[in-house]
Design a protein that fits this description.
The chain has four domains: about 80 residues, Arc Repressor Mutant, subunit A, CATH 1.10.10.10; about 35 residues, no CATH class; about 70 residues, SH3 type barrels; about 80 residues, Alpha-Beta Plaits. The radius of gyration is 24 Å and the shape is globular. α4 packs antiparallel against α5. It is built from nine helices and 13 strands. The longest helix is centred in the C-terminal third of the chain and has 20 residues. A hairpin with a 4-residue loop joins β2 and β3. Helix content is about 35%, strand content about 25%.
């Protein structure tokens, strides 16, 4: 396993272990399809799981795995089933994380999480632990406009196009996802629904126009591929499977040499340029034809900027 393979394999194995532990005797092919890996890669992952333990890392220290036949069976060592004994520092970290989740709009202040946090506070002998989720500028204004059905005009910076534009939107209730605040709004410049990240709003004013407010909270996904978004086929090198796992991929094909061919829905070229720059020149855009040199053109622009900065400093 190369250094570039290690992070995605570790992430996959960490997700695979609890799933296999609760789904006993699963066919290897079903496991491979679920985690989007080849059967050979699955064998490698299961071999790695076998070695999870303490030095000298004998098979089955913490996790027992049976995968010689067509099925996979994983079961945890008995001490995993005993109650977890947390240190004071671990308990406080867990408490802070739980409080952060409760601070997010939409959390149930009287639900199971709140009850568990109350019990943890009692066990730790602490009270009134407060965690605030950072609120970006204009969050309160968006929340009020969404509740009152007031159309707003915003100056919005688009990361996908790297440009500032003025738009009139009918905002939906703000929601917190992936560490940021968003509003699912109707954009009158685009004449359709668009997702806006609230921290990218540079200015806001409330107009005299109104709309019917939306009471329900939108889905947690912050990107919804549209039919007219370009579908781009990319061949990724070994170790770059994180692209298919984190991006809006519509299909994933494992190639014989460990590479992957993925089809991505792309709304803005600048977003894909950043992905290609992260992966490096081993990533190849196969289709459509006018996108095949997208990564090379982006790299040339970055290089030209560095050269210009170096020339100005000399």
């Amino acid at each position: 396993m190369s250094r570039t393979d290690a992070p995605p394999q570790l992430e996959r194995v960490l997700a695979m272990i609890p799933w296999l532990a609760t789904h006993r005797n699963v066919a290897k092919r079903d496991v491979a399809e679920r985690f989007r890996v080849s059967l050979d890669q699955l064998e490698s992952d299961l071999g790695l799981i076998m070695m999870i333990g303490v030095p000298p890392y004998s098979p089955g220290d913490y996790i027992n795995v049976s995968y010689d036949d067509d099925d996979v069976d994983v079961w945890l060592a008995p001490y995993f089933t005993r109650p977890l004994q947390l240190s004071a520092a671990e308990g406080l970290a867990l408490l802070a994380g739980g409080r952060a989740l409760l601070a997010v709009d939409g959390s149930d202040p009287n639900g199971p999480l709140a009850t568990a946090i109350d019990k943890l506070e009692a066990a730790l002998g602490v009270s009134e632990v407060v965690v605030d989720v950072t609120a970006p500028p204009w969050l309160d204004e968006i929340r009020t406009a969404a509740a009152d059905g007031r159309r707003v005009e915003i100056a919005y910076w688009s990361a996908g196009r790297d440009e500032l534009s003025t738009r009139r939107i009918d905002p939906g209730p703000p929601f917190f996802a992936l560490g940021e605040w968003y509003t699912d709004a109707y954009c009158w410049m685009r004449n359709g629904p668009r997702m806006f990240r609230i921290d990218r709003i540079r200015a806001l004013s409330v107009t005299d126009e109104s709309f019917e407010p939306v009471a329900s909270r939108p889905a947690t996904s912050v990107y919804h591929p549209r039919p007219d978004d370009v579908r781009v086929t990319i061949e990724l090198p070994r170790g770059a499977s994180w692209v298919a796992e984190s991006a809006p991929s519509e299909s994933v094909e494992d190639l014989p040499d460990g590479r992957q061919r993925v089809v991505l829905a792309v709304s803005e070229p600048a977003w894909l340029e950043r992905i290609l720059m992260q992966v490096g020149p081993a990533a190849t855009v196969v289709a459509p034809p006018d996108w095949t040199d997208l990564g090379a053109r982006a790299a040339q622009r970055v290089l030209a900027r560095y050269r210009a900065d170096a020339a100005s400093e000399s």
